[in-house]
Amino acid sequence: MQPAGKRKANMIKLRINGQEVTAERGATVLDAAKAHGIRIPNLCAAEGLTSYGGCRLCLAEIKGRKGYVPACCTPVEENLEVITDTPELRKLRQLTLELILSEHPHACLICAEKTDCEEYKSTIRKVNEVTGCVLCPKNGQCRLQEVVEEIKIERVRFPASYRNFEVLRDDPFFDRNYNLCILCARCVRVCSEVRGAAALTIVFRGPQAVIGTALDRPLLDSGCEFCGACVDVCPTGALTERALKGERLPDETRRTICPLCSVGCSLEVGLRKGRIVGSRPLEGAAVNDGQACVKGRFMIRDVVHSPKRALRPMIRGHNGLEEVSWDEALEAAAQRLTAGQPESSAMAISSQLSLEDLYIAGKFSRAILNTDPVLATPVASPLLAYWEALRENEISAPLNFNISSLSEVGAVVVLGTDLPLTHPIIWLNVLKAVRRGAKLVLWDPGPASPIRWATRILRTTPGSELAVLSHLGRRLLEQRPKGEPVQVPGFNEFEHFLHDVTHVEGISPTGVSDQEIRSLAGLLYGARPGVFLCGAGILTRSDAGVIVRMLWNVAQLLGARVVPLPLESNERGAVELWPWGLANAPSLDSIVCGLESGRIKSLYLAGGFPFFGRKRPDALIVQDCYRTEFTGGADVILPAATWAETDGTFVNIEGRIQKFKRALEPIGEARPDWWIFCRLAEKLGRKDFAFQSPLEIAEEIGRMLPALREADSAHSRKGRPSFVFEEKKLAGRFLPFGPPVTPATEVAGHSLEGSRQRLSDFYRGLDLCQEVKGFRRLREKLNLRDEKTKA
Questions:
Q1: What domain range is 80 assigned to?
Q2: Is residue 205 part of a domain?
Q3: How far is CA 547 from CA 235, 357, 369, 474, 692, in A?
Q4: In a domain, 733, yes or no
């Protein structure tokens, strides 16, 4: 944010329609008018996009100049006098809009009886060919309708010309009907300028001009990420969400936090009769600022209203699983838990649960099952690997950061992840940094990596990452001015270590040359400050601990940050809830071994999980929102509510504490996870689980864990973001190294390619999204595309 004095110096005065207004230098006349409530009709302008001047509806007069200028493309000037509303301008706008409507189905727009067919709209709009507003899925939410009302068009004096394009339905999630397109290029600009994908463009020229893709390929083959940004900015029904066709407009909208990845985007969900009909990213949100990914934009409705929802408690009887009351189900679960021997139980908990649910689950596991809970994720967590490696070396590294701050760094190194695929919102901020001149280094990029934006691409032999980091560290030492003292403890030891173990001839097996490493070191040193964004492909290997130590030291040389990128929501919350328990807790592998050996007799699963092995325990209790492969063999099924059906808290990748409210009532007999744990504990005779709301649990979390004190709403102030509390003064030091660093030909089962494949499988096979039809189509096409790439 600029200082007040500097902002004041950047402000200039002008007059619009006789009214004196102020605007920031560099703003347009349209921006200035909008900021002061002066309406100028327009169709092609949109927040966050460059000026285009395509629709010509915002034409205005400037005193002392001939002709008319588009307000969206005209920068403000000191003492400028602008007139936006005269009889001549109104006449010109009507003429321009009539020309636009001559190539757009407009019968309903100028119909004198258009208000009388409201009750029939939801039925007749299901037809394939849109010839009027009542047939269009965008009816009632269309910017073109608003502009027609503003300009007061009552007739179109030009012959109608229907373009007769085929409606494109070959891609997941949304349809493209360019018969309704007005060539405002909003979709083209948002795809290129904001998302960096450039999957759309204007093809042909003149009367044949149309929005399309290169070589007329499907969007999936053109680099589309299916984020829905083009659908959101489209002012007409040319781009529409397929699932909403035939749906009426929502009765109300409510805000929530997306639970489908670790970023925690703010969404606005539309509700009709207590059912979610769609979701959109929230404009101006601190985390995602009006942007989303394919999961948050198109899958929220089907995640909540999946046909595989578990909606009734069930217990296994003589005739298999039978529906019972909650009291019977909890009684049966309590009997099975008490029947087992001490230390023969295990509990696995999904990190997708809210902070309150995780806290109660951990308390339940330790107090009743006498075991630490296992945090179960489909792919090993980079955050946990990074945190554990530093903890072993007694380093308390700051984990908090601002996603928006990534747009201001000088260099970004991405390793072990396909950033646009796994963390698209983070990629958008990296893209802003690149557009401002930052250097982007992609280390072993995958199929979805933004190669065209990269300054350097580093392709190394799988397993040689540690050796490459060592050589990079040595070359970074050479970049430092000679004689410059280093006050950080451990520097001399690390310098001697690098000189002892790195040699020019030792770089050959890594797949890169010494000259490439020297060039990279110079680039990173000259572009400081920098950041290393590390994903599962690098931080979940068997040698992750030593890689983290080397990364830490290299980052110290650059004054850079290392940011691990967890995949699932609330992983950061789990780390803060159980800072010591997670390091000592059993792993998923140990649970599988315990089941195979017979040591584990009872298993409690809370949430969705990867495959646990084939041997079934004596008692299996499944607490989940969905019917999965485990529910068929469960002894007791406890149906859990989704995040949309309860209040709670997430801690996102930044360390931001995000409160969310219930969007709708629980479906069927599903209940929140915390409620199930508390009522089951009461059945087992415990009196310290008498919580009646998530608020009470958050208050206890705030009292017990200082780092999460702002999870208690009493400590959070409206308008100020809440973060995990971290000590401000953290002493940095270089970490020691013992054994020589040599390039590894392969780390068995943990190669970067193998980790990337597991990561890709996770993204495509996310449990919560299995029933979304568009997601299945996207997964199938991605598999085909990857097979072609390998071929």
A1: 4-85
A2: yes
A3: 49, 33, 35, 16, 45
A4: no
